[in-house]
Every structure is written in C-alpha cells, then in structure tokens.
Amino acid sequence: MLTKRLQDALRGTDSFIRWIPDLIAAKSKDLVLIDCKSRMTSRSTGRHAVERAAVHAHLQLVAWTRLPVYYVFDDLDVLAPHDVLIAGQEGPHSIAGSGAPYFLISGRIARRFDGLFGSGGSAAQWEIAS
C-alpha cells in the first residue's frame, strides 16, 4: 500500500510508473495486470472514461512485460488498453478531477468480468495481489 506522500508524488510526475496497474492476478501460469476504474462510467450514457496518458502507458507496459492489462469498471465491464485506443473517442478535458484528457468508450463493446475471469469456483482459482 502506498503512503499518501508517495501517491501525491506519483500524481505529480509524468513518468509511466504513475500508471502501474492496481493488481496482479495469476491462474496457474497465466498472469494479468488489472487497473481498477472506480467512478469512471457515466450512468446516463453507459460510456467508460480512461485517461489518455494511462492508455498510452499501459500499451507500452503490455509491450514491455508481454502481460495483458485490463481495466475493470464498477459495473464489472472489462476493457483492454487496445480496445480503448481503437474504439474510444477522444473526450474533452475534464473540468473535474485532474483535468486530464481522456478517451470515452461505449460499454457495449466491453467484455464481462465473469466471462473473462470466470465466476464462482473458476474465479476463485485466481490468486490476486496489490
């Protein structure tokens, strides 16, 4: 767990280390990186928002580590950085939060969490660390 001082320092840097995903999960020899996206879905439009800098950093992380990165939203929709880059629309700069530019992507193209990671007993086979 990062201290508040470390979190603040990371927010102030343009280093890609700022975008390290929240979780790593393993099932047998399969590893995935998961970036949790809390409050990043519009209830009125059903679109998800992902900061553009995060998408660009995660595409490079995928290339470097050869591990998939997934965004998991509050409604358990799942998208990969490539999904967001290809199908997302550039949204305006946000007036809330950091004010950073972001991509908007329809929840209709997202995978479902249980379809990708399983549910019940099959989901319990994943070991997760943060």
Explain what you see.
It is a single chain. The chain is of the alpha+beta class and 130 residues long. The chain contains four helices and nine strands; from the N terminus they run H-E-E-E-H-E-E-H-E-E-E-H-E. Helix 2 packs across helix 3 (81-87). The protein is globular, with a radius of gyration of 15 Å. The mean pLDDT is 89.
Strand content: 25-35%
Low-confidence stretches: none
- Going by helix content, strand content and strand pairing, the class is alpha+beta
Number of strands: 9
Assembly annotation: single chain
Order of helices and strands: HEEEHEEHEEEHE
Which strands sit side by side, in order, in the main sheet?
Answer: 8-5-4-2-1-9
Overall outline: globular
Named at the architecture level, the CATH assignment is 3-Layer(aba) Sandwich
The main β sheet shows up as: 6 strands, mixed
Counted up, domains total: 1
N-to-C span = 8 Å
Please report the number of helical segments. 4
Give the class-level CATH name.
Answer: Alpha Beta
CATH fold type: Trna Endonuclease, Chain: A, domain 1
In which range does the helix fraction lie?
A: 25-40%
pLDDT averaged over residues: 89
Radius of gyration: 15 Å
